[in-house]
Structures are given as structure tokens and as C-alpha cells.
Amino acid sequence: MPVDFIKPQSSRYAKILLDFSYFEKRLIFDEYVSSNEEGRSLDEDFFAQFTNYLNQFSRMLDALFSLLHDYMEYAERSFVNFNLLDRRYVKLNSLKCKTLFLLGVVLLLIEAKFPGLIKERIFVAIYRTNMNFATRKFELLVSILRNRKENFESCFQHIQINETYVEQMINFLRYYATQQPDSTETDGFTNEKLMSMIYVCLFFKSDILHNQFSIMRQIVDKYFQSDYIIPIHLELTVNLMLKWEPYKAASSTLQTEIKAKRTSMFNSSMSTPPISSQELFNAVVKVSHFEHKLKQSCLYIIAHKAEDATRLKSRICNIFDQIVLLINSQMLQDCSWN
């Protein structure tokens, strides 16, 4: 990523690297780059230097909008099975959950790679080269790319994926979490995968995080009794205590669980004999070994992140292909679709 978009104050293009404040003073800015010799020269040099990069980012935004638009249409048309215990649809529902989860991961990766005002500056530069954005596309992209005081995940609800569809996916994850990791019905969902999936999916229906205390109590009891640092992706890890802080039901439920666990640990420690020096030494050796392995893993991940991105794209395509095959299968031919 060009450093000019990261630190515009140190760039020679600082005067024309604007965030979304551009839309509030557009006439003044456009006059500067069209009527002022300095502004015109800066503008020409800027686009001569960054046009290729902006075109690449623009293609990514086009692909993102197409993905979101197609997924919203699919969710609207999707067959809704209210009987979550109907085993005929477990495979289909698991694929739907995966696609919703991966959609959220794509958005989180964009935020991780282009945090804060960086996205705004790049989008404004792209917008100035092509102002013929359809209204829906413009509004959706601005909602996703806008820098916000609240968590980035709060933009998920503005994507407006069918609420019934999202609620069904969350309920599916709630009630099928007890499947064994080798179960073919959940397509190999491990508990760690289920944790990350329900964490992401909940943001598409944030009312649960805000107000549904009983549902959050069940989710925390089932998934997050002991794990508060959740791996979402190879390069994404979240702290529930920080991410859920703005959400009343989620935060309150998690804090209650943490307090209960601390009390239990304190009571347990009072009855535990002191650790010996040899045991302490062995523990330090294990921690050192773990840190060494962790560093090796991190270096490997960084070296292969491009390959991982390609695999993620392939997974999304494969999952949609499987959904299409399931929809066309004999099992679903007699079903009615909304």
C-alpha cells in the first residue's frame, strides 16, 4: 500500500488526499484542482503515480459489491426451514453458515488491511476518477469503508441481509454446536470453528448482542466459558471483552461468566498445594518451547499469506458451488422457495 494514503501529512499530495470530508466540501476542493495551478499540477501527478493502484482497489470494490449484492439476493430467495431438527437440511444449513461467516471474514480482512481513514482516502480518490456510482452501490460501499468510532463490525447490520435468514443461521449454530467434530452433518465443524462462526454471524443481527440476554447466556455458556481470545482467521484474532463492550447483553453476560470463573479459580487455588521449583522450571521450559513454535508459525503465515488468500477465495467459490448442487439435487426438488 502506498505510504501516502497511510501518512498523508508527510506526503507531497497532502492537500488532495482527503477522507470522506471531501463530500462536505466537494465544490471548494474541485475548484482548487481545476482553477489553481498548484492544485491542477498535484492532481495530475497524483493520478499519474497511483492510477494503477487505484484501479486495482476499484476492481476489488466492484467484486465486493457484487458478492454482497448477490448474497443479499440469495438470502431473500433462500428456502427457510424453520424446523432446525430436520436432518435433511443440516448439510445445506452448514454451507449457508459458512458462506455468511466467510462474507464477514472478507469484510474484517478489508478493515484489517486498510484500517481507519485509509479506506476513505482511497475511495475518495477512486470516486474522483469515476463519479458514476449507482446509488445503492455508493451507499453500501460508503457504509463499509467509513471510519467509525464504534466497532467496524457495526457496519454488518447496514448490509441488510434478510433478517430471517441470518436468524436461522444463528439458531442453527446454537442448536447444532453439540455435533462431534467428525460428524458429516456439520461438515467437520470443530468447536473453535463454531466459536469464530457464531461470533461473526452475530454481528449481522446485532440486536441479539444488544438486547437478547437469554440467547447470549446460552451462547456464552456453550462457546465462551473459557475462551475470550477468538481466532477468526490466520491473520485475525479478536478479544471478546473489547469487541463486545458496546453491546449490553453480550458484555453483561460475558462479564458475569468471567467473574464466576475467577471466583471458582480463587477457591480452587486456596486448596491447591504450592508448586515446587522443579515444576516451575518445567513450566517455563514448556512456555519457551511454545513461544519458539509460535514465532515459527507466524513467520510461516506471513510468508504464505498470498497463498492463503487464494485458498480463501477458492473455498468461497467451492461452498457456493456445493449450495448450487444441493439446490438442484433430488432432495430439494419438491421444496417450495420464497
UniProtKB/TrEMBL annotation:
<dbReference type="GO" id="GO:0007032">
    <property type="term" value="P:endosome organization"/>
</dbReference>
<dbReference type="GO" id="GO:0071203">
    <property type="term" value="C:WASH complex"/>
</dbReference>
<comment type="similarity">
    <text>Belongs to the strumpellin family.</text>
</comment>
<dbReference type="Pfam" id="PF10266">
    <property type="entry name" value="Strumpellin"/>
</dbReference>
<dbReference type="GO" id="GO:0140285">
    <property type="term" value="P:endosome fission"/>
</dbReference>
<dbReference type="InterPro" id="IPR019393">
    <property type="entry name" value="WASH_strumpellin"/>
</dbReference>
<dbReference type="GO" id="GO:0005768">
    <property type="term" value="C:endosome"/>
</dbReference>
<dbReference type="GO" id="GO:0030041">
    <property type="term" value="P:actin filament polymerization"/>
</dbReference>
<dbReference type="GO" id="GO:0051125">
    <property type="term" value="P:regulation of actin nucleation"/>
</dbReference>
<protein>
    <submittedName>
        <fullName>Uncharacterized protein</fullName>
    </submittedName>
</protein>
